[in-house]
Amino acid sequence: MIWNQNVLRRPSGKLWPLRLAYRQAWMDTGRGVQDSILVAGVGRSGTTWLSEVLAASTKSREIFEPFIVRADGNFALSPTNRADSTMGYRSNYSQFISPGVGRASSHHAEVGSILEGRIRSWWTEQGMVPGIYKRRVIKDIRANLMLGWLSDCWPALKIIYVVRNPVSTVASMLERSSSGWGFDWDPKFVLEQEVLMDGCLAPFRNILEANHDHDARLMLRWCVENYVALNQLAGKTNIKLVSYDVLSKNPMSWKGIFEFIDWPFDEDRFAAQVKQQSRTAATGKGIESKKFRSGKERITLLTKLVDQFGLDEYL
Fold first, then answer.
1. Facing residues of 36 across strands?
2. Can you tell me the mean pLDDT for 208-219?
3. pTM summary value
4. pLDDT tens digit string along 81-132?
5. Cβ contact 238:159 at 8 Å
6. Which domains does the chain have, with CATH numbers?
7. Which of 189, 217, 193, 201 minimizes the C-alpha distance to 90?
8. Measuring CA to CA, which residue among 97, 115, 92 is closest to residue 107?
């Protein structure tokens, strides 16, 4: 799917000039990637909530989903790509970059500028409040297929990868879709990336080439993105795997995250923010979500996909 309208362009409306001015009243005094954290995970896995808690607790700048890919395969946000380009964007697409390609990747410079905070747009700054920031929390659901490459090229970057129960994740996607959000996924997004299909996804080609309805496509997205990401996490000391289901139930489990990032944090700010829903939280009112949750046979069929990918421990 390609967005026909430019979501990075300033929205229209009488109040937007004031809102935009408020959001842009900030200064990033951070250094390179050592002053950045990347929060990654499949959409609707709690990435926004996690990043908001970390940003509030550490008084950091929030950068919201900067890894949007243009129709030409390049990242939209970088010093070399104008944010007001009329070129379409692939809204549910994630770019795979092989861990072994290193600095030779054509995307190295543009991704480096994103990780160093040298970008700004209405889209990425939608959670900003005025202030001077020494650190930044980057949140993205489109970085899952390149975590190994990011880890190798920028070892000073701390990456937190969050996984949520697949049934809850897909139910939340369906709820948001029924509320007007464009959550979908096309297996062609990975089938067309030959290096990925010749690598770790080779055993699943037949599954990906089959016809699937909306529910199954979303479950496949959960399986593919988590499978690729988790395969790239092994042995990486700058990537930490966390569970949304654990974090949401046990505030004490956050201790390991703060020890991992090793940044000063405000305990009072954390205690207040961790109890808050994120600004993108599901409403629970979506019709499609209710249908999905009530269909036990349907859920059983979809979770077989999770079994086929060997990810049943997350059910």
1. 136
2. 95
3. 0.90
4. 555 454 678 889 999 999 999 999 999 999 999 999 998 888 888 888 888 9
5. yes
6. 22-314 (3.40.50)
7. 189
8. 97
